[in-house]
Amino acid sequence: MGDTSPIATSVPRSAAAFLPPDRGSLDALREASKCCEGCELHERATQTVFGEGTRQAEVVFVGEQPGDYEDQQGRPFVGPAGRLLDQALQAAGIDRNQVYVTNAVKHFKWIPRGKRRIHQKPNQREVSACKPWLEAEISAVKPKVVVALGATAAQSLLGSAFRVSQQRGQDVRSPLAPHVMATVHPSSILRAADDQTREVETELFIRDLRKIVPLLAE
What we know:
The chain has helices at 26-33, 68-73, 80-92, 124-141, 151-158, 164-167, 186-190, 195-210, 212-216; strands at 52-53, 59-63, 99-103, 110-113, 116-119, 145-149, 179-183. By secondary structure, it is of the alpha/beta class. A five-stranded mixed beta sheet has the order 1-3-2-6-7, with helices on both faces. The chain has a two-stranded antiparallel ribbon with strand order 4-5.
């Protein structure tokens, strides 16, 4: 007789098991996220970096993941990319205090390089594992507009076929919100090769953000 014991299968890890019963409360979600072990990224991160902003926000901005500054402070978009986002929002006529900012992945993924911690892009498995938090945040806030910043956020929200380079600034149909659009992540602007390119890319970024304003007036 052959071995008839069941074949062991690995169950994909997910944040879903860590969500609280009260998923309509941002405070409850934020508190529960501190204990999340939905993927292995929690093992090396300093802390969970949950979203931040008012429950009444009409716009939700979604980035890729926290960076080094965010990992240390426990707040999203407080590093150089966050400062650029603040400046662009001001130029576009959007009050930063009236939006909600978060990331597709809530833990900092990094590799050591000397004394520095270098950002690593999260893989699809890690993005998928963290998606229950992102979906719960958007559901709790119920914004008019969701803006994906960069490819990782856009593909998490809109599918792997979505290309920011081809569809940036477009109003995309989605059950997430009445209006969903994608643009570049501000960190990509900071990586521009020279000041002139950085200036041009900043203006294009602001142009995309200005498209949000009339949507809020509907």
